[in-house]
């Protein structure tokens, strides 16, 4: 029996290109330089950590005073969405909560441990998933709704609790907008069933690919027509350069940040 851990980042990459999934997660070929990692993730890491510390009752003002950019984001959020910070004895608050869900492949040889880390859960009569997005511009709602994070986190909260889909919602807060902006998605039985079916189909495909990988065969590449290779750090390794005329070569360090979870799990 083989155990494979899957987060929303894994699903996103797998859906985009199975070969990229292989390179990043099975072969550990992707790297970010410390400088790039620091530049692209430091603000997000600090913001998430500070709000987690606040939920734990720890003082954060000294750090905010020394970090004006984060201070502006936290204060902007507190002014725009005070309800997120209001204590309510009927609502349980859970910060940085990890939920896991084991699903077996139909071949019974592979098990998949799905993992979700919730920035903030507000659990009352209804359940609200709150997620801090720390990149600059808000993403389009249509795209966000299809993101694996949205679908997996809603699915896992229902699957690991007594809440029914109609009682669960997911709100993204874009904390670097001025003022902060939010996008909220509800959930339904139909969406829950669709996500479950898609997850089952996906892990069945992955089980087949993993079995072949252990026998020395690589996972499939995305079709060139999808135009994803030009922005992939593995374009040379995949020999996709000649099929992508007149495109700029990516640097190793600037790519695949999106393929890695905002807070790695
Ligand atoms: S270059 Fe294209 S085929 Fe190769 S890993 Fe990247 S997206 Fe996939």
Secondary structure: elements and pairs:
Elements: E1 2-6, H1 8-16, H2 18-26, H3 34-55, H4 61-66, H5 68-80, E2 92-104, E3 110-123, E4 127-133, H6 141-146, H7 148-159, E5 168-174, E6 181-185, H8 189-214
Parallel strand pairs: 1-3, 4-5
Antiparallel strand pairs: 2-3, 3-4, 5-6
Write up this protein.
There is one protein chain. With 265 residues, the chain is α/β, with parallel strands linked by helices. It has a single domain, classed as Alpha-Beta Complex (Lambda Exonuclease, Chain A), CATH 3.90.320. Helix content is 39%, strand content 19%. It is built from eight helices and six strands. It has helices spanning 8-16, 18-26, 34-55, 61-66, 68-80, 141-146, 148-159, 189-214; strands at 2-6, 92-104, 110-123, 127-133, 168-174, 181-185. Strands 1, 2, 3, 4, 5 and 6 form a six-stranded mixed β-sheet that branches. A hairpin with a 6-residue loop joins strand 5 and strand 6 (181-185). Helix 7 crosses helix 8. The chain starts with a strand and ends in a 51-residue tail after the last helix. Mean pLDDT is 88; it is low at 251-265. The structure holds iron/sulfur cluster.
């Amino acid at each position: 029996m083989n155990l494979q851990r899957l987060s929303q980042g894994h699903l996103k990459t797998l859906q985009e290109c199975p070969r990229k999934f292989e390179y990043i997660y099975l072969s550990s070929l992707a790297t970010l330089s410390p400088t790039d990692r620091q530049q692209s993730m430091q603000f997000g890491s600090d913001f998430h950590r500070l709000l987690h510390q606040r939920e734990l009752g720890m003082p954060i003002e000294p750090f905010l005073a020394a970090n004006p950019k984060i201070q502006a984001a936290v204060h902007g959020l507190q002014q725009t969405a005070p309800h997120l910070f209001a204590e309510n004895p009927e609502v349980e608050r859970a910060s940085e909560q990890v939920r896991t869900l084991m699903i077996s492949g139909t071949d019974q040889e592979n098990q998949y441990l799905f993992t979700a880390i919730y920035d903030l859960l507000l659990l009352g009569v209804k359940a609200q998933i709150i997620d801090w997005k720390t990149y600059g511009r808000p993403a389009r709602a249509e795209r966000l709704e299809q993101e694996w994070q949205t679908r997996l986190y809603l699915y896992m909260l229902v699957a690991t609790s007594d809440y029914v889909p109609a009682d669960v919602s997911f709100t993204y807060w874009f904390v670097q907008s001025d003022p902060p902006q939010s996008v909220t998605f509800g959930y339904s039985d139909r969406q829950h069933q669709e996500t479950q079916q898609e997850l089952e189909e996906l892990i069945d495909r992955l089980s087949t690919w993993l079995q072949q990988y252990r026998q020395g065969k690589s996972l499939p590449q995305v079709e060139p027509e999808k135009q994803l290779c030009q922005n992939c750090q593995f374009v040379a390794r995949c020999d996709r350069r000649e099929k992508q005329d007149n495109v700029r070569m990516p640097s190793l360090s600037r790519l695949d940040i999106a393929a890695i979870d905002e807070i790695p799990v």
